[in-house]
Amino acid sequence: MPAPEAVLGPRIVVGGEILDGHAVLHSDGRIQGVVPVADIPDDARRRDLGPGLLAPGFVDVHTHGAGGRAFNEGDPEGHRAALQAYLAAGVTTLLPTLSSAPLDELLGALVAYESIRDRATGPRIPGVHLEGPYFSQAQRGAQNPHALRRPDDGSIDQLLEHADAIRMISFAPELPGAVELTERLVGLGIVAAAGHSDARDTDLAACQRAGLSHVIHIVSGQSTTIRTGPYRQPGLLEATLASDDLTVEMIGDGKHLPATLMKLALRCLQGRLCLVSDSTPGAGMPEGYHYQLGQKEFIVEGGVGVTMDRTSFAGSTTLISRMVPIVAEMTGIGVADAVAMATEIPARAARLTDVGAIAPGYHADLVLLDDQLSVRAVALGGVWQ
Fold first, then answer.
1. Ramachandran angles phi, psi of 60, nearest 5°
2. How far apart are CA 223 and CA 234, in angstroms?
3. Is the pLDDT of residue 119 over 90?
4. Which of 8, 229, 270, 286 is deepest in the core (most CB within 10 A)?
């Protein structure tokens, strides 16, 4: 093994703490450890980054595109262009996310992903997140209503012909066949997630018993409590907030959720609540920019994506690295905890075991932040970009 490199200068986010006077040792693309500067081995090369905060590379498990390109396009060159935009923003691992679309579009996008997954030069892409098409019409949000399906209609067989390319599928737990779909996904090692759902708490519980472990974007696209006569029936939102072991996403762009709802989610789910960008091709694009997802057109307006009739958000235009300071400011959460929401917790949600932390054996994926938590530099496998 070659002599290690010691990265020193900034404070370092390690295991929920921020360490001063330490260095990260890495060699051959992997982290060896974190040691006091006085204990750096004599044979180590030193890289002094100066002041700042050194964090794990960001992990985004729900993101549709950036820089004018969408993963739904099914265009390998478009994928590569988007991936470079993520890497520049400090995102070193992501799940390219496909929104609900006709089956042939989804299959084409999966094939396009398979063509680049081993040759991509940007962030690590351990698999695709299929956001749909098995969603509730009542909670579809900006999802294409004409592309929505039921889990028991047979279409999953075609999608799962590409099971090795899929890391996560989100669906509505109340739909016919949802429990059977959960069991099938768990058996294949695919993360089963709930979302865009009109479920009652009993529907979610049935899928949890079958192995569902994750819930997408809290509050957005989630049913809430209804009354049947004098009896109250909790919805997906309340069941999620009351859960003991689910990992849960939150879009932290300051647009989708006000501070009160962010604080409520953190109070109930801290340690299991992760940030996701839910970004679109509108990320990094100017006001008034039009983009498409799943054959629907949207517009960047007011710093967020919206439907053309302005009745619903249509994903964010903010990448996850910019959400960390937004959430820290709006909720008062500590910096180390905010960083964990964009690194360690989403990695755990997607069952990724060697990214999202600065720890021995993990990939040496690092991001240098300034005092405002803006990205200054990014390393992928120990190579500074």
1. -120, 115
2. 8
3. no
4. 8
